[in-house]
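Supplementary Methods. Inverse-folding protocol.

Structures were first reduced to a discrete structure-token string of length 140. This string, shown here, constituted the complete conditioning input.
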């Protein structure tokens, strides 16, 4: 479910991703302003200082926003959607800085880790279901 706060957090993450290499490229600036305008956040008092580069965003802050946005147990789909959104920004200027690549790599790793955790959970759940079915059969 997409809420207003999720949209706002996504825009904050995109701004943070643009700042992650220490500066916002002109193409990234244009991309961010278009996204903020489309989402109705271009004049938001919280977003505006970062969007118009009055206050820089430190990488640590960007990663904190990512963690807040995804939560403790993000789904593969949530991670992939975030990677897609950030990729659109990162590739807007035609070059990928090391810091930007690192962010995408960490998100990809998180997505894969969560997917393997989900697979293990599903396997465990199947085993429990089998045991329960056997117990029910024995009781009849």
């Amino acid at each position: 479910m997409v809420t207003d706060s999720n949209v706002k957090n996504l825009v904050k993450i995109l701004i943070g991703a643009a700042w992650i290499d220490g500066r916002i490229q002109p193409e990234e600036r244009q991309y961010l302003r278009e996204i903020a305008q489309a989402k109705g956040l271009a004049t938001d008092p919280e977003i505006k200082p970062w969007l118009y580069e009055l206050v820089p965003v430190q990488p640590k802050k960007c990663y904190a926003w990512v963690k807040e946005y995804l939560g403790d147990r993000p789904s593969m789909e949530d991670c992939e959607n975030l990677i897609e959104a950030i990729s659109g920004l990162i590739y807007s200027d035609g070059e990928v800085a090391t810091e930007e690549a690192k962010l995408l790599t960490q998100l990809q790793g998180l997505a894969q880790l969560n997917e393997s955790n989900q697979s293990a959970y599903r396997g465990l759940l199947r085993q429990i279901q089998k045991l329960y079915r056997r117990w029910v059969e024995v009781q009849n």
